[in-house]
């Protein structure tokens, strides 16, 4: 995940150190796989299925990633980004720290 407001205002990118996606118990949706382009955006992505109690950890600054279309239900996941500096969006009021 990048900080879109920083990109729009300065033309630069800002990425977290680590990106995590957790799929909690009680999921009831189909589709919505996490697609990670480990060999570049023109390659076939690695698809990671949404399964209960699964934690996916990856480097969001080095690999393009997205979520495929949900075909049934509502996709539920917890996204956690670990930063080694304060994100621009937090310091500028676009995000809150809890």
The average pLDDT is: 85
Largest sheet: 3 strands, antiparallel
Element-by-element helix/strand order = HEEEEEEEEH
Helix percentage = 10-25%
The number of helical runs is 2
What is the number of beta strands?
Answer: 8
**Which consecutive residue ranges, at least 5 long each, have pLDDT under 50?**
none
Shape: globular
Record the strand order, biggest sheet. 5-1-8
Strand content: 25-35%
User: What is Rg?
Assistant: 15 Å
Structural class: mainly beta
Question: Between the first and last Cα atoms, what is the distance in angstroms?
Answer: 19 Å
How would the blueprint of this fold be written?
Elements: H1 4-10, E1 18-23, E2 30-31, E3 34-37, E4 46-48, E5 54-58, E6 64-67, E7 70-72, E8 78-82, H2 88-91
Antiparallel strand pairs: 1-5, 1-8, 2-7, 3-4, 3-6
Structure description:
- The chain is mainly beta.
- Helices cover 11% and strands 33% of the residues.
- It is built from two helices and eight strands.
- The chain has helices spanning 4-10, 88-91, and strands spanning 18-23, 30-31, 34-37, 46-48, 54-58, 64-67, 70-72, 78-82.
- The protein has a three-stranded antiparallel sheet, with no helix packed on it. Strands 4-3-6 form a three-stranded antiparallel sheet, with no helix packed on it. Strands 2-7 form a two-stranded antiparallel sheet.
- The longest helix has 7 residues, at 4-10.
- It is globular, with a radius of gyration of 15 Å.
């Amino acid at each position: 995940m990048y900080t879109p407001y920083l990109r729009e205002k300065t033309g630069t990118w800002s990425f977290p150190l680590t990106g995590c996606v957790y799929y909690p118990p009680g999921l009831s949706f189909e589709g919505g796989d996490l697609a990670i382009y480990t060999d570049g955006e023109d390659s076939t992505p690695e698809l990671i299925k949404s399964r209960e109690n699964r934690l996916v950890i990856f480097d969001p600054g080095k690999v393009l990633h997205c979520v495929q279309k949900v075909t049934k239900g509502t996709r539920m996941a917890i996204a956690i980004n670990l930063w080694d500096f304060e994100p621009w969006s937090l310091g500028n009021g676009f995000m809150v720290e809890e």
